[in-house]
Amino acid sequence: MTAKVVPTQHLVVLGDSVAAGANCTCTTYADMLVSMLATGSGHPATLVNAGQDGLTTAGLLAQLNQPAVQRALQVATVVTITIGANDFDAALATRDCAIGTSLSCYAPQLTALPTLLDRVLNRIHQLTPATATVITTGYGNVFLDGDVGRQQGSNYVTTSDALTRAVNTIIDNQSVVTSDRYTDLYTPFDDWGQWFGGQGQEGTYARHHASSAATGSARRYGSSRRRLRGA
User: Fold this and answer.
1) Total-model pTM
2) Cα 231 to Cα 229: distance, rounded to the nearest angstrom
3) Is 9 helix (H, G, I), strand (E, B) or coil?
4) CB-based burial of residue 25 (10 Å sphere; 0-12 exposed, 13-18 middle, 19+ buried)?
5) Residue 197: what pLDDT?
6) Which one, of 177, 172, 71, lies nearest residue 122 by Cα?
7) Average pLDDT per run of 10 along the chain, which is 231 residues long?
């Protein structure tokens, strides 16, 4: 008698410190999500967390050439990507060229980000099965948030908020292009004091991230993948 094959969910988490769970004195969203996937499907779920503290979008593109990462993606059923914040230098946030919504200090990086993200997402699609679900995420804040962020001054708060919204728009738009899901992590945390208060933001952020991805509340763009260009 042939043994029944039990389908297994394979989660691959890519990105920066948010993905890696750096400085999170909590259960990371990757660990929460793999547990939710197992519970929701009723089948085993595995996790490969390739997140790295400080990783940039260009760094993620290079990481996709690593054999271990490629092997994980080749069997992935769900892939999450949180990337982009480290492309920007927080030290510029209080300079005159960054204050307000012009963000001229960050113009080169904002211009480069769509192309880099496009290359990352296309490469991931080339490496994953056609049935895999790819989920991108935005950020609650690309820099410091809560009381810690406010301590940097009002110019810092204004600039980091404007930059976060700009980065999230780029990630959202690129998800449209590649017919992927986008998870909004800005809206639930746009009131710094109400949500964070300088305490416990990592755990709250992780719970929302995992819940959004697991329940499918992330927006889905398109019913199929577009034809891929060379990465």
Assistant:
1) 0.85
2) 6
3) strand
4) exposed
5) 35
6) 177
7) 69 93 80 88 93 97 98 96 96 78 89 98 98 93 83 86 95 96 80 39 58 53 35 34
Record the tokens describing residue 92, joined without a space.
Answer: 């510029």
Instruction: Return d(Cα 58, Cα 72) in angstroms, integer.
Output: 20
171-192 residues labelled b (16+ CB within 10 A) or e (exposed): bbebbeebbbbbbbbbeebeeb
Q: Which of 207, 186, 82, 190 is nearest to 146 (CA)?
A: 190
Q: What is the pLDDT of residue 58?
A: 98
Distance CA 18, CA 24 (A): 9
Torsion angles phi and psi, residue 165, rounded to 5 = -65, -35
- What Å distances lie between residue 120 and 26, 44, 57, 194, 207, CA to CA? 29, 28, 8, 35, 25
pLDDT at position 215 is 55
Residues recorded for the chain: 231
pLDDT at residue number 84: 97
pLDDT of residue 93: 86
**Strand partners of residue 181:** 135, 220
pLDDT score at 206: 62
Could you tell me which of 36, 38, 48 has the C-alpha nearest to residue 9? 38
**Biggest distance spanned by C-alpha atoms of the chain:** 73
